[in-house]
Amino acid sequence: MYAVELDGVSQVYVNRKGAYVALQDVQLAIAPGEFVSLIGPSGCGKTTVLSLISGLLTPTSGTVRVFGEPIQKPTPKVGYMLQQDYLFPWRTIFENASIGLELLGRLNAASRQYVLDLLEEMGLGGYADRYPHQLSGGMRQRVALVRTLAAEPDILLLDEPFSALDYQTKLQLEDLISATLKARGKTAVLVTHDITEAIAMSDRIVVLQPNPGRVLTEAIVPEAIREAQPLHAREIGGFHELFRELWGRFEQMDGKGGGGHGPAET
Ligand SMILES: Nc1ncnc2c1ncn2[C@@H]1O[C@H](COP(=O)(O)OP(=O)(O)OP(=O)(O)O)[C@@H](O)[C@H]1O
Fold first, then answer.
1. Three-state DSSP class for residue 51
2. Where in this chain does the record put each ABC transporter domain (predicted)?
């Protein structure tokens, strides 16, 4: 059984200016424990795919399944991590990290301890009683990761979670997230504009093309790269070849007029 399955999925957005086909007949299957990155030019539908998997959006046609079940609304089985950390400034780090459990009515002695353990694991052990403004951007994003992991989702959706961070912090967080998800056998879907990040973190890369959003091609990341920590993966043979291959796909799309946003945005 697949962790995530998009079966003939199309998504049409309708607004005052008419209808825009953001995704057309997308077929995608992700195995449990697999780390898949979605890349492609701006507007090709990457975030729409995540919204569909999360249950925030219902497809215009086709089916989205999570562990075999059609998904109709958000479920704790699927966690979502965004570019912004969205921490509440008036809540402590512990209170921010545990808010999901609180809302689900699952905050008890055991889950509190789990959140404290996760904070410790993310190097935030001494910060539980601090407030978000006392933390750096990278630390805040680690709190967001704890908040997402606290509800013990099986699938993590990561929508450009590193793009607001400085380069060094981004590399460190890539390593931390990769190790954390691998150790727990989580399934992950990462949306990124950074091809090197996609190669360093993923088992498989799916390239989407715009107008309308479709799967253009897929690439399996060589085993040696997959087994390395993202930081070191960049030095392994095959990395640059795969980068060039994927970059070539982007150039091809540019040549065909891809890379633009659809009419819905204007
Ligand atoms: N709610 C909406 N209403 C109308 N059009 C939308 C809506 N959401 C997205 N779109 C359009 O659908 C297309 C796909 O959007 P989406 O955000 O999924 O793309 P993306 O690949 O994630 O883009 P980016 O890389 O710029 O974040 C775009 O043309 C966008 O303008």
1. helix
2. 4-235
